[in-house]
């Protein structure tokens, strides 16, 4: 289904813009609230505290050697990556996608 915007939708919006979006999604079998979507970032981040709450064992993390630069330009050390099923929406408008997250 096409998502489209009309001139009236841009009323009061200064263009160009790169606003962030905060959503609620289902990751694995858990509902995660306040997920920040920032299309300007090059990695999907999952914080260790949240990873622990998903009750996934750390031995399931895939080691990676690629360094990650933080928002302030500092080096961020990650624990590895993991592929998780993410569900957005509800039936009949629901989609599922496998996403790779860096756990930091």
Automatic annotation (TrEMBL):
PANTHER family noted in UniProt: EUKARYOTIC PEPTIDE CHAIN RELEASE FACTOR GTP-BINDING SUBUNIT-LIKE (PTHR33240:SF17), OS08G0508500 PROTEIN (PTHR33240)
Protein name as catalogued: RVP_2 domain-containing protein
Species per Swiss-Prot/TrEMBL record: Cephalotus follicularis
